Amino acid sequence: MMEFDTIAAISTPMGEGAIAIVRLSGPQAVATADRVYRGANQLLEVPTHTIHYGKLVDHETEQVVDEVMVSVMRAPKTFTREDVVELNCHGGVVAVNRVLELILAQPDVRLAEPGEFTKRAFLNGRIDLSQAEAVMDLIRAKTDRAMTVAIGQIEGRLSKLVQELREQLLQTIASIEVNIDYPEYDAEEMTQQIVQKDAGEVRRILTELLRTARQGKILREGLSTAIIGRPNVGKSSLLNTLVQEAKAIVTDIAGTTRDTIEEYVNVRGVPLKLIDTAGIRETEDIVERMGVEKSRQALNSADLILLVLNGNDELTQEDTLLFEAIRDMNAIIIVNKSDLAQQIDLTRVEELAAGRPVVTTSLLEEAGVNDLEAAIAALFFEQGVESQDMTYVSNARHIQLIKQASQMIEDALGAAEAAMPIDMVQIDLRRAWDTLGEINGDTAQDSLLDKLFSQFCLGK
Ligand code: GDP
Ligand code: ZN
């Protein structure tokens, strides 16, 4: 294990929480806490993984700073694999800051950099890089399902797969090597066969993995969704219904800025990022403000359109224009006001929907809302594919590396097929092996590590 100094930081979100935790990690963690702790025991003597009630005092004046519960966890069974002490304070920004100041006033301890606890966990070999990144994703996860993906990564699902793929590449490289040593074989032809079979398999799995990337990205960032329709069809009602139905919105973590015109709702595990909800609430929708042509551009950035129609009315030219504007886009057509006499030509609506789902609702009476939610979920989890068991790549850096590695294998396949010198094939495979290694951090550079970990929240 590497030798580090002792670091400390507030590890709970800043705010008026009931409990705030100051966390220390490093060789002096227990001694530092012990110096300012007054309780039944000396912290230096208590067994590991135990919690102790007591007071924190200014070590010079013996003045009480806070009442605390102190957890003492000795290496190596800790998050960082170092000695860790957590001071559970009484909370309040002022109190917790005073405790942190007190700790930092002790010798041999300094304020942790953002992400430094996680960085240590990585450097001490407790987690690999993709797991460290998953910790960050977890902090930002918007819904339960995004949480599951992040947890899957922390558990090492992606790392394990990447590990296996690298193993396989290494084996491919080795078998090619063996061939070169037996000149009685036609080395080029053997190489071609081996590369096609083994490296081809690796590339297939990488392609598969990239297919999950879209879903992974949506889970992380939300499916950007626009509600459109002419005035009075029920857009605001739909927005309100979705917001109310959203039972498990994970609110943004303190410290990350929140875009005021975006609202996240969770529909059966699919996070929708509703675009321009302020516009709908206050000044009606984008189409009205900007006209169809301009709104078409705005709509293009959406992953999903919810087009609302009034079933109590005949289709108007404006409705047709809206259909026109969302041609070829992911959309769900909502025929609202089913509680009133139906005037709309449903056959025509189906025609214009062109295979996209049409759902009938009465938002006033909350009818059809389940159908709508099911339609949204079905769009996302194609044919009800259960997502929980899949290995997702959702991290932009991972996606980039997988794309690159995939391309390198492609190059190797091309080189083998063209009967290029075997060295060339080897080089491409070797580079793919290296590139995949960057996902887990096996081949990561120090500068990359610094950049990655500095993105973490302070105290994590
Ligand atoms: P927007 O202009 O598209 O945002 O539509 P609103 O959501 O503001 O709704 C316009 C009016 O239609 C309001 O008076 C709503 O109460 C009413 N409304 C919305 N949905 C329904 C529905 O399903 N049935 C009936 N009868 N009225 C509805
Ligand atoms: Zn409205």
Structural overview:
With 460 residues, this protein is of the alpha/beta class. It folds into three domains: 6-127, Probable tRNA modification gtpase trme, domain 1 (Gyrase A, domain 2, 2-Layer Sandwich); 136-218 and 395-441, Four Helix Bundle (Hemerythrin (Met), subunit A) (Up-down Bundle); 224-384, 3-Layer(aba) Sandwich (Rossmann fold). Helices cover 48% and strands 16% of the residues. It is built from 16 helices and 13 strands. The strands form two sheets. It has a seven-stranded mixed beta sheet with strand order 3-4-5-6-2-1-7. β4 and β5 form a beta hairpin. α3 packs antiparallel against α4 (129-140) and α14 packs antiparallel against α15. The radius of gyration is 28 Å and the shape is flat. The two termini are 20 Å apart. Mean pLDDT is 79; it is low at 246-261, 278-284 and 383-389. The structure holds guanosine-5'-diphosphate and zinc ion. Zinc ion binds at residues 235-236, 280, 284.
Topology overview:
Blueprint: E1 6-10, E2 20-25, H1 29-36, E3 37-39, E4 50-57, E5 64-73, E6 84-89, H2 93-104, E7 109-111, H3 116-123, H4 129-140, H5 144-154, H6 157-180, H7 187-221, E8 223-228, H8 235-245, E9 263-267, E10 270-274, H9 277-283, H10 286-300, E11 304-310, H11 317-325, E12 331-336, H12 346-353, E13 358-360, H13 369-380, H14 396-417, H15 422-440, H16 446-453
Parallel strand pairs: 1-7, 8-10, 8-11, 11-12, 12-13
Antiparallel strand pairs: 1-2, 2-6, 3-4, 4-5, 5-6, 9-10
Helix pairs in contact: 3-4, 4-5, 6-7, 6-15, 7-14, 14-15
Subcellular location: Cytoplasm
Binding site for (6S)-5-formyl-5,6,7,8-tetrahydrofolate: 23, 86, 126, 460
Keywords: Cytoplasm, GTP-binding, Hydrolase, Magnesium, Metal-binding, Nucleotide-binding, Potassium, tRNA processing
